[in-house]
What does this fold into?
Amino acid sequence: MSDRAPTAAVRLAAWRGPLVWLALLLALAFGMPTLEPVLRGIESDTRQVVYAQAGLPSLLANHLLVVGVASLLAVALGVGAAVLVTRPAGRDFLPLVAQFASMGQTFPPVAVLALAVPVLGFGTWPIIVALLLYGLLPIVRNTLAGLEGIDPGVQEAARGMGMGGAQRLWQVELPLAAPVILAGIRTSVTVNIATAALGATVGASNLGAPIISGIVNGNTAYVLQGAVLIGLLALTVDSAFARLTPARG
Amino acid sequence: MTRRDALPVNRVVPALSLAAAAAWLALASVSVAPNRIVPGTAYAASELLGWPLAGVACLPLLGLAALAWRPHRGRLRLALALNLLLLMALPAWVALAGALRLDPDQPQARLGLGPAVWLLLFCLVLLTIELRTRLALPAWSGWLLPVPILGAWVLAAPWLGSLALWQEYRGRSGQFAEALLDHLLLVGSAVGASLVLGAAIALAMRRDARLERLGFTLLNFLQTIPSLALFGLLLAPLAWLSARLDWLAALGVSGIGWAPAFLALLGYSLLPMVRNTFVALAEVDPGVLESARGMGMGPGQVFWQVRLPLALPVVLEGVRITTVQAIGLTAVAALIGAGGLGTFIFQGLGQAAMDLVLLGALPILAMALVADALLGALTRRLDHRTALRQGVTP
It folds into this structure.
C-alpha cells in the first residue's frame, strides 16, 4: 500500500491509457457514419461503405456481452476448480486437472470453437459455452501456479497464528496468488475477444460480422471498420488489465 | 479431519469411469442419415443392444472403478491395461453399431459419431493420463500408448466405410493433402522466418536498452490485436501495394492469400520468439562466461561455443510456443484465402456440414498436440544435456 491515499485526479491519471483507447473505441463505434467520405476514398466502387446490417454500437455491445458473460463464468468456475483441487478434500484431482489445463493450452481456439458448434449448435449460447470452456484453461493453470507457488513458510505462519482453512484461503493464499491469477484472466479475456470475433462465422452478430462480410463481398471498408473496432476493444481491455497488474521488474 | 495414515482412496478413476458409464447409457452413440443433407436419427447404446446387453457392457467401466479404488501398483497396471482395451474397443463398437443400423441397400447412408462416443473417448483419455501419472510411467510411454489405439481404428477401417467423416475425406482426399501441405508450409515458413528475424531483433535489443523497451512495447501491442482483425487490416495495404508494384504482384502477393497470412503469422510469432531468445541470452550464468573468457576464448567464440548452446533450451521453448500458436492462427488465415486446413472448418460451418468441420479441426488439434510434444521433448533433452555439461546433476 502507498503511504498516502492518492487523490481522485492522480488515480484517474493512472488510467489514462485505457481511457484514451476506450474514448477512441466509443467515438469510432458511434461516429463511423461521419467518416463516410474517408471510407469512400478506400472503397470507391461499392455503394455501401458504412456497415449497416446492424449498428456498430450494437455489435460492440453484443461482443462485450458474449465475452463478459463467458469470462465471468470462466473466472468463477476456473478459480473455484483450482481452489477445490488444492484443498485436502480435492487433492486427488490435482495432477489430472493440472495436466489437462496445461495440455489444453495447446488446443487452438478456432478448433475448439469449430468442435463446439456440432455439439452445441449455432447461435449466441454455444459461443458463450465454447469461450467459457476455452477461457477456463489459462485461469485454472495460473490459479494453480499461484496457489502452489506460495512459500510453505507463509502457510505455516498463518496456521501458527490460528487461522482456519477458509481464513487462510481468503486472507493469505488468494491475495498472494492474485497477480498470477490476474495474468491468467488477462490471457483468457484477450483470447476470448479474438475468438468471439470468429463467432461471426457461425452466425453471431458481433464485431467479427463486418470483417467476414467484407471479406466475402470484397468490401475493404467493412473489413477496416470491424478490424479497427476489435483492435481498439482488445487494446482497451488489455491496457486496463496492465493497469491492474502490478508492474514486473 | 481425515486420518493421514489411512490407505489413500483414489476417487479420480471411479469418478471418470462412472461419468463414462453414464454417458454410455444416457447419450446417443451413433446417428444414421440416409444422405448428406438429411439430419440423422440418433441411437443410444440401449436402443441398439437392448438394456440388458448395454448394462453388461458397462461392467468393464465399473471394474476400472473398483480396481482403482484402493490403488496399489499392480492393480493400477491392470486398470491401465483395461483402459487401453476399452479405448481399442471403441472403433469396434462404432463399426458394430453401423452394421446394426445401416441399410446395405443405401450406399449413400452416413454414420455419424454421437456424443456418447466423444465423451467416452474424452473420459478414457483422461483416465489414461491419470493412470500414467499415478504409475509414474516414463516420458516415452506417452508416445507408445497411442499406438495400439490408433492401430485399432486402422484395423476397424474396412468396416467404417460409411463413417461420415471418412466419406467427407474420400470426397476430397486430394484437396486434403494440398490443404495439409499448405498449412505445414505456412506454419514452417512463419516460424522459420520469425526465428531468424527474432534472433536478430533480440541481439539488437541486447545492445540498446531503448530499443529493448520500444521493441517489447511494439510486439506486445501487436500480440493484443485479434488475429481476424490483423488479417483484415493487412488486406487493404497489401492490395494497394500489389496494384502499384509489378514485382510484388508477380510474386503472387495480393490482399488475400498467403501474403497477408504470412505477415500476420510472422508478427504474432515474433513476440514469443524475441522474448525467449532475449531472456535466454541474458540469463546465461556470468561465471561460466567469465571462465570461458579466462580460457582465452574471443568474444565470437564465447558467443557461439558457450552462450548460444547454453541458451538453446529456452530459445527452443520459444519455438514451441510459436509453432503451436501458428498452427491455430493458420486455421483462421483460411478466411482470407490462404488455404490450409481451416478451409474445411469454414466451408463446413457455412454448409452446416459438421463432419467437414471435423475434417479440418481434428488434424489441426492433432498437429498442435504433436508439435507441442515433439518440441517439448527436444527441449527437455537439450536441457538435460546442458545441465550435464555444466556439471550439475539434473
Notes: The two ends of chain A are 18 Å apart (CA to CA). Chain A touches chain B through 44 residues (CB under 8 Å). The domain at 56-244 of chain A is CATH 1.10.3720.10 (MetI-like fold).
